[in-house]
Amino acid sequence: MSTVKSVAVGVELTGRGTTVALVDRHGKVRHRLHAMTLRGRPAIATIEPSLRAIDTMLSHALAEGFKVGGLGVCVPGTIDFDRRRPLLLPTLPSLNDFPLCDFLEARYHLPVQLRIDVDAALLGEHRFGAGKGVNRLLFLTLNAVVGVSLVVDGQLERTAQQYVGHISHLLVSTNGPRCSCGKRGCINTLVSADAMQKMVQRAL
Ligand SMILES: [Zn+2]
Predict the structure, then answer these.
(1) Residue 104 sits in the same domain as residue 185
(2) Number of folded domains in the chain?
């Protein structure tokens, strides 16, 4: 099999929508599509537009002569790794406990891997980006809360997969702003997207 023509389909599910990407073995995105996620509907209805985007992507791959090796799906929340399904997705609750991997494998007859979004981003940086070739890599995300994921000895730390990766209340400044947890100076009150939004609002 030609390595150039060998690809995978990456699917990022979020409460705001879904990105579907055709990625080659060098980490290069060859084609990208976007779809809505229909929040508040049952599980399959929630991801129906995403499924159509995956259908379109697989047709595109076939037409372009690409060989799709599998699907990689990431979700914003926790995962039940043994049962290969989302456990708790605050922004897409209808997918909680939905057998996502089994469902997609039955539909597409391709192997499916499910990851937490932060871990998927870390693995991407480790394999193809800023952390390429390094043995230890720490990845921070600054969204509504601060998340962390870790590669040690070239492997994703298992603890990060169980959302120990939430470091919102790590103390970084003893006289920082008051946090929702009652303490002062948690990292979440200083560098999260919410914290920065509050700082801008106060400054205006
Ligand atoms: Zn706190």
Answers:
(1) no
(2) 2
Provide the residues around ligand 1 (an ion) whose CB is within 5 A.
169, 179, 181, 186
- Give the model confidence (pLDDT) of 98-138 as tens digits: 999 999 999 999 999 999 988 899 999 999 999 998 999 98
Q: Please provide the distance, in angstroms rounded to a whole number, between the alpha carbons at the two ends of the chain.
A: 58
For ligand 1, the distance from its centroid to the CA atom of residue 134, given in whole angstroms, is 31
What local confidence, expressed as pLDDT, does residue 102 receive?
98
Question: Which domain range does residue 13 map to?
Answer: 6-122
Quick check: is 1 in a domain? no
Query: Domain holding 88: CATH number?
Result: 3.30.420.40
Residue 33 and residue 80 in one domain: yes
What band does 4 get if pLDDT is binned at 50, 70 and 90? low
CA of 177 to the centre of ligand 1 (A): 10
Q: pLDDT for 145-174, tens place per residue? A: 787 888 888 888 865 445 555 678 888 899
Report CA(100)–ligand 1 centroid distance (Å).
33
Distance between Cα 187 and ligand 1 center (Å): 8
Centroid of ligand 1 to alpha carbon of 204 (angstroms): 25
CA of 173 to the centre of ligand 1 (A): 11
